[in-house]
Design goal:
The protein has helices at residues 2-5, 12-21, 31-44, 47-59, 69-81, 89-100, 111-115, and strands at 27-30, 62-65. By secondary structure, it is mainly α. A two-stranded parallel ribbon has the order 1-2. The protein is globular. The two termini are 16 Å apart.
Length: 123
């Protein structure tokens, strides 16, 4: 989502193509992901861009999923299995949600998901 928002991002063009491929799909996003994106946009771009992102979510077609106990427990189990320091607990939350909600893919360019058996969208 960061790559979709920031035109200077190295993955911007790829992200646009992937988003176009999935424009008919329901895109789910964790509330923790919303917080992470807003924080990164604020730090790397500016406050206005972060606020615009949050406002756009209200009008967008995203299904926002709240992180609750079952999801936290599943994420903790994934985190416990990690051998690489490149896979964060945040990544494990996404993997847990993908499993619990039967997502088709995780919209990311992070190869750690692939190493854990999850699909990334391809173009």
């Amino acid at each position: 989502i960061f790559a979709l928002t920031i035109t200077q991002d190295s993955n911007h063009k790829k992200a646009l193509k992937i988003a176009d491929e999935f424009k008919e799909a329901t895109i789910s996003i964790l509330n923790t992901t919303v917080a992470e994106i807003a924080t990164v946009l604020f730090r790397k771009v500016n406050h206005r861009t972060a606020l615009n992102f949050l406002e756009d979510l209200k009008n967008g077609d995203f299904l926002i999923i709240n992180v609750e106990e079952k999801l936290m427990n599943k994420a903790t189990a994934y985190f416990g299995k990690q051998k690489s320091k490149n896979v964060s607990f945040f990544d494990c939350l996404n993997m847990a949600a993908s499993e619990l909600f039967n997502f088709n893919a995780i919209f990311s360019f992070d190869q750690g998901y692939l190493k854990n058996g999850f699909k990334l969208p391809t173009i």
